[in-house]
Amino acid sequence: MKRGVLIVLSGPSGVGKGTVRKALFEEPDIDFQYSISMTTRQPRDGEVNGEDYFFVTREAFEQKIADGEMLEYAEYVGNYYGTPKSFIDDTLASGRDVLLEIEVQGALQVKEKMPEGAYIFLTPPDLRALKERLIMRGTEQLDVIDRRVHAATKEIQMMANYDYAVVNDEVSLAVQRIKDIIKVERLRVNRVLPEYIAMIEELEES
Ligand code: 5GP
């Protein structure tokens, strides 16, 4: 069975990863799965447990780490965020593609374990736009915003670790660019070759 494609969408905080990811999944022709992350942060207004995140306690999260159940995790502005491993393994093994939307430290951990994935770095048109977007979101205190912007500056330097850079100048444009990347990824020789080898083997046997 052909394995699914792992797509990792990452980039600095406030660049609009969540917005772009949500818009991507609203497209009618999206046929990949979303990996729901686990976090110890409090739900924001309107966030639903099991849809936006699995919201858990620190103790529960640390137990998952100890049990080896996280593909990756990071501590980010005082909270844990991480990707449950079994969903990724099962989904890819069943041939379906899966998208992770995570911050950069976690993305690096995934890349070490699964270098065959498609690593997409979402970039802000400029840093000022990043700060404005964080302030406009209105959910964080100013000192938290400053910490996030400082973290973002460092994160941008990490673009070199990725396969693709997508500028988020407009959400709909970023979505189209990501869809194009996924189309191309599915055509990479190392993804289609096993299928052809199997076909040749069948021909040779008949
Ligand atoms: P927020 O608190 O705004 O929902 O997310 C904060 C940051 O954590 C964002 O950059 C988001 O992409 C990232 N994040 C969400 N889920 C995960 C995850 O499972 N692993 C890691 N490493 N980062 C995550």
Features:
single chain; 206 residues; alpha/beta; Rossmann fold; four-stranded mixed β-sheet; 8 helices; globular; binds guanosine-5'-monophosphate; transferase
Brief characterization of the structure:
It is an enzyme of class 2 (transferase). This protein is of the alpha/beta class and 206 residues long. 47% of the residues lie in helices and 18% in strands.
How does this structure look, described?
Helices cover 47% and strands 18% of the residues. The protein is α/β, with parallel strands linked by helices and 206 residues long. The mean pLDDT is 92. The strands form 2 sheets. It has a 5-stranded parallel beta sheet, sandwiched between helices. It has a 4-stranded mixed beta sheet with strand order 4-3-6-5. It has a domain of 139 residues: P-loop containing nucleotide triphosphate hydrolases (Rossmann fold, 3-Layer(aba) Sandwich). The chain is built from 8 helices and 9 strands. Helix 1 packs across helix 7 and helix 5 runs antiparallel to helix 6. The longest helix has 17 residues. A hairpin with a 2-residue loop joins strand 5 and strand 6. The structure holds guanosine-5'-monophosphate. The site of guanosine-5'-monophosphate (5GP) has 15 residues, from strand 5, strand 6 and helix 4. It is found in: Cytoplasm. This is Guanylate kinase. It comes from Weissella minor. GO terms for molecular function: ATP binding; GMP kinase activity. It catalyses: GMP + ATP = GDP + ADP.
